[in-house]
User: What shape does this take?
Amino acid sequence: MSEPFEPKIVAFVCTYCTYAGADLAGTSRMKYASNVRIVRLPCTGRISPMFILKALQKGADAVLVSGCHPGDCHFAQGNYHARRRWTVFRALLSFTGIPEQRIRFSWISAAEGAKFTELINNLTEDIRKLGPFEQYHELQTVIETQATY
Amino acid sequence: MGIQEQYRSEAAGLLSSGAVKLVIGFGEGSTVERRRPVFVRTPAETERLVLDGGCVANLSTYLLTEGLLSDGKSVAVFLKPDGIRSINILAAEAQLNPEQVVIFGFDIEEGQVRALEGRKASDFAPVIGVAKAAGLSAELQKEAELLDQISAAERFEYWKDQFSKCIKCYACRQVCPMCYCRRCIVDVNQPQWVNTSSHTLGNFEWNIVRAFHLAGRCVACGGCDRSCPVNIPLRLINHRMAKEVLDAFDYYAGECAEQKPVLATFRQDDPETFIL
Assistant: This one.
């Protein structure tokens, strides 16, 4: 019997809201899928699109980017800038064939532990149904296995 | 007197009076219909300048040659409306002072060259207004829509085939007036964001990154597309980005020198339908 597929999900979160939200989920003893690997950053404005590409390159099946609600940014406007960037980057990824379901964006505040739990659980379920991102990972496998590269 | 002769004599006048130190224009190329950039420094040399339907390159890219504008002297350059938009963007991004750029404006319609009124970038606002009103290329939009209609997996296969051809020659970057970074992200190796060998994954990343960096900055001059030795349809991906910023933020790149870069600004009510 083969092991069920466990998706690898990388979450880039800002330290002031979503990370604190995840913390709240933990201290409130809420359970969420252990498939998520959280990377904490100062602000969503610090989350470069390169991070998303790197996560995919290193074998992520989905990427979540999350930060403070608009208006709540610790740095006043970091998330507004990030939002524009995501709009463009999401369209670009979609146009090059990286499914929108695999790259998610959300606003989760420090008080929304329950929302974080729910989002991670739903995302994990969705990606489990979708399966591993073979199409992308195959490109990496080729590099690792073929000496001619 | 045709426009070519008129611009030749004007260029000679500017050079002899010392108003400009250099004229960047077009000269004869390696075949009859091709034109290549020429750099004219003396009035006599203006005889080499050619202006006809083959002058399609966006010469604004040469203005950022290191040290060229740092002495405060002016340079004249032959530009189509797309090139004038490039000047506006470069000015907005503080890469050059538009006062130092004298523009010989022209446009090509059905192979015929037409002069554009004005000598400074700001003089061409009406021309750019007309270009904006005409909208993005309908032809490219059609091609891009065809791609948008197929499934993500099919699109991925399409681009995988395209990008697998890439040999990472970076001609697209070299020809692009917007690619002026002293140290390009692909040349950064600590950390190494983009794989530098030309395997498909690295090619994918490189082309995605370049398209992203051009979002809201590309003027669709087509330089990258023409220079690509393996014919990757870069115009499509750049068009898709231009369309996105136009639809989402009502942003048309290079309208004027005061226009803020699209990703360096925001509105509180920007669309965010995709954010959970």
Notes: The two ends of chain A are 35 Å apart (CA to CA).
